[in-house]
Amino acid sequence: MNLNLKRFLCKYLAAIALCLPLLANAATDTVVVGQAIDLSGPNADLGRDYVAGIKTYFDVLNAKGGINGRRVQYLVRDDHGQADLAIKAVAELITQARVSYLFGGVGDDVTRAVLDSAEFKRSGLTLYAPLAGADYRKDAKVLFWRPSYQQEIRHIFSHFDKLGIKDVGVVYQESAATADAYRRLAERMKESGIRLSGTVHLGSDPAKMRSETAQLASAKPGFVIMIADTVNAGVFLKEFRKLAPQTFVAGSSLTNLTTLRQLAGGKAVEWTVFSQVVPNPSIGSSSIQLEHLNMMRKYRDEPVSALTLEGFTAAKSWQRLLAAGKRTSGQAEYAIPDGGFDIGGYTVGDVADSNHLSSYVDMALFNKASGLTY
């Protein structure tokens, strides 16, 4: 080995030695948060808005010095809305990125797949705030920010009950993710004395769907409730509106409104209402709404939505739930205070024996401007 090469290697190794403590300190002074979510698949609009809200709050948090001086590093992976890709992305976040916390993605299929995956189970992590609506065991390693789909259904029924409506049509997409919701809906109708006008089953038989849709329209229900993903809801609405243009149809907060309008058409989405799990994101009537509006203007060049507000509020709640100081081995990620806590105008975490932090539900009408009127 010549003398010049030896000198170069000595300087190179000395530089590495000097950098190692800095790298170690950088890793120690960072809280790594990971998320696998749909950014380019069927629910990309929901995923992108949710991520924008979360990222905005983390930008705010880091600008204030982070968490006890530790900066939040937010790593997002696109799972394209596919369960197998979500499992792969989560495994990479856990084993390679070494995330300390894990936010969830969009939909029950993806959520269940992640919870059942080997790498997630080995990690000991809790999946935080997925955009999913089914009920999960209270001992499952998942903590929801939003209320369950059952709570949304109850609110929808309560809304129309106040209008004196006692007959309803049900549109049901038969799948593992919706089976429990449909069963609970039937129980709720029986308890409330609501008459079933008809049922439309959404599946692989378009002729059956059209026939059942015609029968439902002829029964003239007071309103129709959809338990379906956005694509199937769009297929139904497009057909139903040919026969019943002014019957109220209700959907859940996880309906992708942009996609729904594209599939069904502008006229078809009139007279549709949707449950919402956050207050109107476009006004500042509470401190969390105002903070979200101001910080989105400061950090993001895009409009606000219910999903940006949900992401912002979920991230703020996440910070409030963290134990003081650095987390030690075996320590639970989250500590929910007794009686919950105020998150800027309303209380979350106050529902005993529940893995849902928020029970807030509102109603909004899809308007001609392709937005929601609360």
TrEMBL record:
Keyword field contains Signal: yes
Gene3D superfamilies: 3.40.50.2300
Keyword Signal on entry: yes
Ranges of residues in domain Leucine-binding protein: 30-329
Keywords associated with the record: Signal
Signal sequence interval, chain numbering: 1-26
Pfam families from the UniProt entry: Peripla_BP_6
Domain of life according to the entry: Bacteria
Matches recorded under CDD domains: PBP1_ABC_ligand_binding-like
InterPro entries: Leu-bd, Peripla_BP_I
Annotated PANTHER family: BLR6548 PROTEIN
Family label: Belongs to the leucine-binding protein family.
Protein name: Leucine-binding protein domain-containing protein
Source organism: Collimonas fungivorans (strain Ter331)
